[in-house]
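Build the 3D complex.
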Amino acid sequence: DAGVIQSPRHEVTEMGQEVTLRCKPISGHNSLFWYRQTMMRGLELLIYFNNNVPIDDSGMPEDRFSAKMPNASFSTLKIQPSEPRDSAVYFCASSLQQGGARSNQPQHFGDGTRLSIL
Amino acid sequence: SQKIEQNSEALNIQEGKTATLTCNYTNYSPAYLQWYRQDPGRGPVFLLLIRENEKEKRKERLKVTFDTTLKQSLFHITASQPADSATYLCALDPDSSASKIIFGSGTRLSIRP
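Done.
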């Protein structure tokens, strides 16, 4: 079974450039999560979607970050303009949420995009 | 303030011994806790989930406990092996109205032969 697929695996770009990270969730999953991981702050939730609709974007650091999910099989996280402090590993995860809002299904993670902003 | 705390220092265990990792939380009332394993350069992988009304959950050599009074979960690996070396993350649901989870900072476990 194909897992969560993220691209690119590595991205190095200069400050001020636009960065787009991509994610293909597991087929049939209805929730998608974007995380950022750094040594200092650990694994932080940026935004999550249920049925392609953004539910909680309170973790998005600022207006330079935006995320979209145009359909059930694709999501993007965009940073424009990028800054050196955005350097981190960005993970996408998906899950199948059932029943009530406080569901308890495991999340399946991709292997991340390691982003370096020079 | 709300916190999820795991052993910040790495845990070094002799092969064959039981490794015990701790997850403490403050000012949360989670309905469940999850444990994940993360290897270098990889995303976290789900291991176990335990609900608030469950005291203990087992899966092969893994055991998780959940004490809502102490606000603590313990994660045990029995008969540890070098292949168990990884970072282990606990996560909980912070909000009864949402399907998101919040992760602790993780504990790095090293099993020496």
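Chain B touches chain A at residues 31-32, 34, 41-46, 49, 51, 89, 93, 95-106 (CB under 8 Å).
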